[in-house]
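Attaching the record inline, Q. Sequence:
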Amino acid sequence: MRSKAPIVILAALGLALATGAVQAADSPWLVRARVTQLSPADKSDPVGGAGAANRLSVEKRIIPELDISYFFSPNLAAELVLTYPQKHEVYLDGKSIGSFKHLPPTLLAQYHFVPEGQFSPYVGVGVNFTRISGVKLLGGTADLESNSVGLALQAGVDFKIDQKWSINLDLKRVNIGSDVMAGGKKISAVKVDPTLVSVGLGYRF
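Structure, as predicted:
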């Protein structure tokens, strides 16, 4: 399990709170529905401590996202990224050895550069918590660590259709990793570290 930057993220959110409320004419809430291509990095330690690295890989998937943003000011927002548990096949040397499910909520602090513009880019930094469950590897003889905490980075842009609706393009890189266990011993470590490319529709309440 890896833990990165939770204190930095909380400090960023605290700074956002200190900047003041959103202008009265604007709603602070923005909800987006996205379709996301999840592409794992597929990096792993040698299995059993011997041989080549990167023999383990995780299935790519297209997943749905629901994203809820709250604007503390026109420029500063917090975004919560949600989905339901996603099932992935795991491969060793290209052959399936089983599957697992993961639930990866992510909280990000965002800076929006030109919030009043029709073309509104933003960047974000945050923390991801991934809950791993339903592990079925090598006929039940291998397991994965149950939790992963890691850094999340984001860049995106909103194209405003009108005052309420927008089209969203979004790119995230998330640190997700897990030890692979068998017989109570670590036999490898996997860095899933997915890149997520999303397109979606936003609505400002």
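Confidence is low (pLDDT under 50) at residues 15-25. The chain is about 5% helix and 60% strand.

More tomorrow.
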